[in-house]
Specification:
single chain; mainly beta; six-stranded antiparallel β-sheet
């Protein structure tokens, strides 16, 4: 089970050749509560795992509104742990937002 708390800020958009473009910045704090599992193989080997982590995510993005209900977006995010676990990551995404 994970929880997230975040913030997103959309700037006033820009008009590029008649296409509305909106930059945005976002910040999220993710926290995964303690979970533990174990697997027993052939009633001999027991493998246990547990997980608990807190992560901060910072991101930048750009959305282009092609119609009143359809936008294309591109974003880049950086994640890092805040609790001593070894996590650093970059992720990029692109996609389509549709409103109906």
């Amino acid at each position: 089970m994970a929880g997230v708390s975040g913030f997103s800020r959309n700037e006033q958009g820009y008009d590029i050749n008649g296409l509305p473009v909106e930059p945005y910045v976002r910040t999220n704090v993710w926290h995964t509560v303690y979970t533990g599992n174990s697997v027993t193989l052939d009633q001999v080997d027991k493998i246990s795992s547990s997980r608990k982590s807190s992560t901060v995510e910072l991101g930048l993005g750009l959305a282009a509104r092609v119609t009143p209900t359809v936008s294309f977006y591109v974003s880049a995010d950086y994640s890092s742990d805040v609790d001593g676990n070894d996590l650093n990551g970059l992720i990029g995404s692109l996609g389509v937002w549709m409103r109906w």
